[in-house]
Write a structure and sequence with these properties.
With 312 residues, the chain is an alpha/beta fold. It has ten helices and ten strands. Helix 2 packs across helix 3 and helix 4 crosses helix 5. It starts with a strand and ends with a helix. The structure holds NADP nicotinamide-adenine-dinucleotide phosphate.
C-alpha cells in the first residue's frame, strides 16, 4: 500500500484510496458490507468515509446505520488501530437540524463516537458549507473537540475555494485547527457549465488550484458516477450529458483498451495520478474486486495527456 499524509497535516497517514460506506447497514446488508470492508483492508488500504446521517434518505432507515455497522465490524475484527475513520456533521436527519452550529457539532461528534465505538474520530468534516454559522463558532467547536482528544483532524465538504480561505484566516487568527482536506464531487467527465447538484459541490479548476497552493488534500466522491461509465442500467446523470462527455469517453476507452483495464479503473487511476484521493463505493464484493485493480495501473505521461486534452 502507498500511504500519504493529508496535505498540510503530518499526523494522519492514509492510503491513497478511500472507501465509502453510505449504503452499508441499510441498502447493503451486514454480511456483504463487512465482506467488502474485509477485502478493502486485505488490499492494505485503511481510509473509511462515513457520515452521521448515512443512510437517512433510504426508506426504512433513519441515519446512523453506516457508523453503527463500522463500529460493530471494528469490534469484531479488533482492527481500530489499523484504520483512519472519517465522518461528518451538518446534514439534517432525525431531529437534528441542518448546519454546523457549535451545539450540533459537539452533540453529533459524541453520537458518532458512540456509534463507531471509538475514542477519537480521525477526520471530522462539516458535510455542507453552513453560511449562517460564523466560521469562528464552527472552528472553535472543532478546536474544542481536537483539544479534548475526540477529533484528530478536520476537513470540509461541498465548499468553494474562497470560503475555505475565509475559514483558514479565522483559524490562523484564533489558533484553531486548519482544514487538512476538502471532500468534493469529482470525476473524469466534466459537468455542464452551471450544472446543479443540489447541496453537492463539484470540483472546479479554482478549487484544484487552491488545494495545490494551500497544500490541501482533495478527496473525490462519486468518481464512478454510480457506475454510469460501464453500466447500461445507469445512464449518465443529466449534468454530464453533453458533447464534451462524448469526446472524453472516447479518450477514456482508448486508454482503457491500451492498458487492458476497465473504464472505472482508469477513472480512479486518473484521479490518483493527480494526487487526489478517490472514494470508491461498492455494494458487491465483485465491484470492489474490480475497482481495486486500479492499484496496478500506472498511467504514463502520454496517457495522462490523452485524457486531459480530450474535450471540446
Ligand atoms: N461528502 C459528500 O457530500 C459525499 C457525497 C456522496 C458520496 N460521498 C461518499 O463517497 C462514497 C462514494 O460515493 P458514490 O457512491 O456516489 O460513488 P460512485 O463511485 O459514484 O458510485 C459507487 C457505486 O457505483 C457502482 N459501482 C461501483 N463499482 C462498480 C463496478 N466495478 N461495476 C459496476 N458498478 C459499480 C455501485 O452502484 P450500486 O451499488 O448501485 O451497484 C456503487 O455503489 C460514498 O459512499 C460516501 O462515503 C460523500
Amino acid at each position: 500500500m502507498v500511504k500519504k499524509t493529508l496535505g498540510n497535516n503530518n499526523e494522519l497517514e492514509v492510503s491513497t484510496l478511500c472507501h465509502g460506506t453510505d449504503h452499508f447497514g441499510s441498502r447493503v446488508d451486514y454480511e456483504t458490507s463487512t465482506a467488502i470492508l474485509d477485502r478493502y483492508v486485505a488490499a492494505g488500504e485503511n481510509f473509511l468515509d462515513t457520515s452521521n446521517f448515512y443512510a437517512a434518505w433510504i426508506e426504512g432507515f433513519k441515519g446512523g446505520e453506516s457508523e453503527t455497522l463500522i463500529g460493530k465490524w471494528i469490534k469484531e475484527r479488533k482492527n481500530r488501530d489499523q484504520l483512519i475513520i472519517a465522518t461528518k456533521v451538518g446534514v439534517p436527519y432525525q431531529d437534528v437540524p441542518m448546519g454546523a452550529k457549535a451545539k450540533i457539532i459537539e452533540m453529533e461528534a459524541e453520537k458518532s463516537l458512540k456509534r463507531l465505538g471509538i475514542d477519537t474520530i480521525d477526520m471530522y468534516y462539516t458535510h455542507l458549507d453552513d453560511r449562517s454559522t460564523p466560521f469562528e463558532e464552527q472552528l472553535e467547536a472543532m478546536d474544542k473537540l481536537v483539544k479534548a482528544g475526540k477529533v484528530r483532524c478536520i476537513g470540509a465538504c461541498n465548499i468553494l475555494a474562497w470560503r475555505l480561505e475565509e475559514a483558514r484566516n479565522v483559524s490562523l487568527s484564533n489558533g484553531f485547527p486548519l482544514h487538512s482536506c476538502v471532500e468534493q464531487r469529482y470525476t473524469y467527465l466534466r459537468p455542464k457549465v452551471n450544472a446543479n447538484f443540489g447541496g453537492q459541490v463539484s470540483t472546479n479548476s479554482d478549487l484544484l488550484d487552491y488545494c495545490r497552493s494551500r497544500n490541501l488534500q482533495l478527496i473525490a466522491y462519486s468518481p464512478l458516477l454510480h457506475g454510469a461509465y460501464m453500466r447500461n442500467d445507469r445512464p449518465l446523470p443529466p449534468q454530464y450529458q453533453h458533447a464534451d462527455s462524448d469526446v472524453r469517453m472516447e479518450a477514456l476507452k482508448a486508454v482503457a483498451e491500451e492498458l487492458n483495464a476497465t473504464l472505472n479503473q482508469i477513472v480512479i487511476a486518473w484521479l490518483m495520478h493527480q494526487n487526489i484521493i478517490p472514494i470508491i463505493g461498492a455494494s458487491r464484493v465483485e465491484q470492489i474486486e474490480q475497482n481495486l485493480g486500479c492499484l496496478d495501473i500506472n498511467l504514463t505521461e502520454a496517457q495522462m495527456k490523452t485524457l486531459n486534452r480530450a474535450g471540446i
